Amino acid sequence: MDHSNLHATTLxxxxxxxxxxxxxxxxxxxxxxxxxxxxxxxxxxxSRPLIMxxxxxxxxxxxxxxxxxxxxxxxxxxxTEFNPSSLGFFLxxxxxxxxxxxxxxxxxxxxxxxxxxxxxxxxxxxxxxNSLNNNGSITIDDPDEYNLLLGNCQPEFEVSMxxxxxxxxxxxxQKNYLPAGQTHLPKLFFIxxxxxxxxxxxxxxxxxxxxxxxxxxxxxxxxxxxxKALKMICASEDKTYVSKTGTPHGWDVxxxxxxFFKGIMLFTVIILIGTGWSFLKPYLQEREKKVxxxxxxxxxxxxxxxxxxxxxxxxxxxxxxxxxxxxxIDVICCCAVFFPIVWSIRSLREASKTDGKAxxxxxxxxxxxxxxxxVVGYLYFTRIVVSAIGAxxxxxxxxxxxxxxxxxxxxxxxxxxYNFQPIEKNPYLVIxxxxxxxxxxxxxxxxxxxx
Length: 451
What we know:
Number of helices: 11
Largest sheet: 5 strands, antiparallel
Strand content: 15-25%
CATH topology of the largest domain: Rhopdopsin 7-helix transmembrane proteins
Order of helices and strands: HEEEEHEEEEEHHHHHHHHH
Oligomer: single chain
CATH class of the largest domain: Mainly Alpha
Helix content: 40-55%
Number of domains: 2
Number of strands: 9
Radius of gyration: 28 Å
């Protein structure tokens, strides 16, 4: 009886480990690129067999240094002795998770710290008795992208500790705390800051030149360019300081603030343009107000979730929940922006049958259709395609993923600002002198505007 119970417990333990390895592998996939900086993480009575801290892309001369202090543990079972050597830190590649899973299935009494597929940094068997502190380091002789994890081969024990992780590459004898694939990001973000600054200056010139036709939406669009440019310079300074010192020196706070306003204003601009507010009509309908009232608070929550995800890391117990909430809110906001565009297209089609302005309505419909397609393409590219590119490119070219995302955003901004600029030839502001009968016939025969 005892033997059968022991066997059942062993099988249950193996099954839990298999699920955990798959879960950790999934977490490593959804981490948005390599993390960086010198991290100080607090683990509080955690019994997880695997705790993932961060991911980092190493070059030929990469190093990892870990310092722990105030280590304590407690047992969930009576009369169980803690073995410090069952707890330790290690590095592992993404490709090795499946091999470790297979190894755990075929090895009795398996402990991940003994796996041949991990790079062990140190075990806690060398804890200083009085202070319960320890530290260790390792030099990477096989450059790749690695995940840093804490393994606990006695999950019946809950452990607490403060963990300071320092991961960097040596370049000309100097520490660079950015992963190998992010070393170009400071320059990349600064280039986009220059571009958006020039963009804003050009937009300001156009608004001044055409001030008689400037509407409120154009001022909001100008503010969007300002916060986007400020976000880019903050991102550049953040990465610059992190690369040199391992800490952002407060630039991350500024980055989050301007990112917060940029996110809210971008979705607001898309919705307001979709409704035709200020240049088609001076008011918002009740249903359009409801979309705005829904999206703006959701954007606030999304930005809060983004800050929590970025600042805590996967070692936090509820990190996955915050990640799921971030993705869910982003999907909801992306879907919500389509409703005003669809409503405007339908109302324009209905108006074209009664108001006798077929030519003007045809141009409006064409522009709204283009706007709809571009919004769909932009959201699909930045949410789906960029993630796919990140999964395919080598970790050393992680900056290419950011370049693609920012490039797509720039193209999207150019389309919006060009097509909705305050000029007299804008089809929203004047009625072109064309054959109404021809335009009416096109509207009657062409069903391409039907959604």
